[in-house]
Amino acid sequence: xxxxxxxxxxxxxxxxxxxxxxxxxxxxxxxxxxxxxxxxxxxxxxxxxxxxxxxxxxxxxxxxxxxxxxxxxxxxxxxxxxxxxxxxxxxxxxxxxxxxxxxxxxxxxxxxxxxxxxxxxxxxxxxxxxxxxxxxxxxxxxxxxxxxxxxxxxxxxxxxxxxxxxxxxxxxxxxxxxxxxxxxxxxxxxxxxxxxxxxxxxxxxxxxxxxxxxxxxxxxxxxxxxxxxxxxxxxxxxxxxxxxxxxxxxxxxxxxxxxxxxxxxxxxxxxx
Amino acid sequence: xxxxxxxxxxxxxxxxxxxxxxxxxxxxxxxxxxxxxxxxxxxxxxxxxxxxxxxxxxxxxxxxxxxxxxxxxxxxxxxxxxxxxxxxxxxxxxxxxxxxxxxxxxxxxxxxxxxxxxxxxxxxxxxxxxxxxxxxxxxxxxxxxxxxxxxxxxxxxxxxxxxxxxxxxxxxxxxxxxxxxxxxxxxxxxxxxxxxxxxxxxxxxxxxxxxxxxxxxxxxxxxxxxxxxxxxxxxxxxxxxxxxxxxxxxxxxxxxxxxxxxxxxxxxxxxxxxxxxxxxxxxxxxxxxxxxxxxxxxxxxxxxxxxxxxxxxxxxxxxxxxxxxxxxxxxxxxxxxxxxxxxxxxxxxxxxxxxxxxxxxxxxxxxxxxxxxxxxxxxxxxxxxxxxxxxxxxxxxxxxxxxxxxxxxxxxxxxxxxxxxxxxxxxxxxxxxxxxxxxxxxx
Lengths: 272, 443
Known about the structure:
The structure holds 2 protein chains of 2 kinds.
Chain A: E1 2-5, E2 8-13, E3 25-29, H1 40-47, E4 52-56, H2 72-85, E5 91-96, H3 98-109, E6 114-120, H4 130-137, H5 142-151, H6 154-158, H7 168-176, H8 181-194, H9 198-203, E7 209-214, H10 222-230, E8 236-240, H11 247-250, H12 252-266
Helix pairs in contact in A: 1-12, 2-3, 4-5, 4-8, 5-7
Chain B: H1 15-21, H2 48-55, H3 70-83, E1 87-91, H4 94-105, E2 111-115, H5 120-129, E3 136-140, H6 145-151, E4 156-162, H7 174-183, E5 188-191, H8 196-199, E6 209-213, E7 227-231, H9 244-247, H10 258-262, H11 266-278, H12 285-296, H13 298-317, E8 322-326, H14 336-342, E9 350-355, H15 358-368, E10 373-374, E11 384-386, H16 398-403, E12 410-414, H17 420-435, H18 437-442
Parallel strand pairs in B: 2-3, 2-4, 4-5, 5-6, 10-11
Antiparallel strand pairs in B: 1-7, 6-7, 8-9, 9-12, 11-12
């Protein structure tokens, strides 16, 4: 579906179901340089089981217009604006990687709006490798290739996608190269590198929180994810073996099962 | 000690490694080092909710082997990885892969622009069968790049061609024809069977969908039929209103928009969800496994195929019984320079040559070679020969043969990986017979 936030058109996948204001809202926030499509193996389930599942394209990404937002704080405010724009008062947030920084900041800023928080491959800070940052800011496609290498665990490099026939390293590469790299990945990496408030923001979070981490995550290692989770009262942690940073694709089924249990328990669907 | 900073390099697996490993994780398959053959029709559901989720594409997984199968899935991922594609769908043959591609793209009333130099079966599909479904085609000679542009109509949904035409070895100028297609907002579909991803990666030159008859070089051993369509993932289905079945809500899956939901893999998802469901040209797991065995040695075999082919080109070019030789490695081949650009790892192992003495000499040659096999296939490890005018393209009338660039003296040679001297010696027997067709036929 398309709607406007701050006068710019936003695209969000609804998981193949029409948006229904009566249903509780889950907003899925993608990682650096990516799009709503990274969530395809999670959103459809929720969309067909009593929720509005909105996998948004951040401004300047995927099918959304406007320029990419330059800071995690701006993105956090934008997510809050999305909730308002679609006519809801509250939402459950799900973030991946950079999306975790955004949703942690958003939850700390708008505690009354956010009912549950699910973090995948999250950390309190994501300092960027200077060379990778430079490549992305200079529009070098090698930045995407490096990201896809580091984002997939050793098993993920072999493939074995849960959806038959899909090769996720090439799919991720295509998503990250679908818009101008320096305007998406470059801006996002700089925003991640600049963001320093993650641990302080985490301390303010009181809603039920889940962290899904992966043993082979090179971009946000388990110890960083645990450190963030330890600062959030009552945070649940689920660790997936033999999996890298792209757990939402590499182990999509496991992620959905854990997410489904957490969200339906803490933020029940509209019963049919 | 050097203080030079180490340059960052992506360590994703390279071609030869992907040929052996892509798409498969042993630890998820009881540790089996070899890909298991999942000889089953169907798969247990955990519960009713799980079943519903699989049917509704909410979860990845297998339901019924007509739609997908774990062994076939490994093959699909492997070929997608080798081509640089986002997704692939394997079928029971190359022809069914072409048919499924067209039926996923087109509806009745649509039109395609098609290269005229194609495998005879493909010509008949586009010329005779697709019109029965209301899909019309305009044929254009593969070197007539401007002709492709002129043939595009309002209802044209794509351009289709073989990268190197069968059997005349005419090469489509893929980058230029891709630009023509993309300027018109339509995809370019390329049958790259002759090249395999070892010789050419069409997505790097603008193709949007790549099709293979895996039966040929990919499987390589003449044992198993299989086909595949591979998606490049760059084509924007939402850029215009030409592809409503990709962009509009689809009744068959609760209003799903394939382009919105699946983006760079939308075409493959639709081909599987709709095409395999409704037409059902599924690949057997045994044949998928056989093809996987072939792909494991693809680069090794292709190097030998190409080096033997170049030797045969030299041999034939200097032979007194040969009137002409067509192979992209020949300097006076009209597409020699284009071939160097599109086929950097080798120009392939298909050679067409004209035998002096015309049709009778051709028949004598074919009937007398002993090592080379006379049959209707290409891309076997063994050397194969055929006389197209009386074999693969025999269902064409005289005018269609001429338009397809075929002549009665043409012999199509698929060079195998035998010892090159043995192939040459065998051809000497054939040529001797061809020079004296009557004497030999009376023996």
